[in-house]
Amino acid sequence: MSGTDRSAHAAQDEAPGTPGGPRVAGVSVLVTGMSGTGKSTVLRLLARRGHRVVDTDDDGWCTWVTHPGGEREEVWREDRVRALLDGHTDGLLFVGGCRSNQGRLRDAFAAVVLLSAPEDVMLARVAERSGNPFGKSEEDRARIRADLRDVQPLLRRAATLEVVTTCGEEEVADRVEAAGLARLVRAAGPGGHP
């Protein structure tokens, strides 16, 4: 285990609101980024570490809307996501997703972590992944390129931290977890108590 791994796990053992730590008010962290940046992988690793995670790509968190002009888009069901965030009262909650309306709920997140990767890495990841067909067609890949150009700068401006995911998966999870733990300690106040 590297020094980074030891310090991240030691901080977790001592931090309020984490397994083994004192109970504190809940802190929610948005894990966002373009397709192929590793959101689902990071959420899976954080869940293994005992944190509550919600991947909004899963059923029930999004709905399709039709904009004037006929363009269809999948967006967060804001009522459901807001209820999730408002109902979170203890420890860390990591919410993963990237939808055009997520900024409307920005105030409910203590931190926004942007995961990013070079275009070629993202395109290779979506081509190789299983369980999610998005990114396999040339149309999807063109959308990823356009989103990288047009959407990622907006995400970057709203982020409290950006993690480039070309390092190892565990290191990415360590950095995302540390961002949440830092907000959790702040929420706990002096002496680790709310």
Automatic annotation (TrEMBL):
Q: Which InterPro entries match?
A: P-loop_NTPase
Show the Gene3D superfamilies listed in the entry. Answer: P-loop containing nucleotide triphosphate hydrolases (3.40.50.300)
Q: Which Pfam families match?
A: AAA_18 (PF13238)
Question: Positions of the region Disordered?
Answer: 1-26
Please give the superkingdom of this protein's source.
Answer: Bacteria
Compositionally biased residues, Basic and acidic residues: 1-12
Q: What is this protein called?
A: Shikimate kinase
Species this chain originates from: Deinococcus aquiradiocola
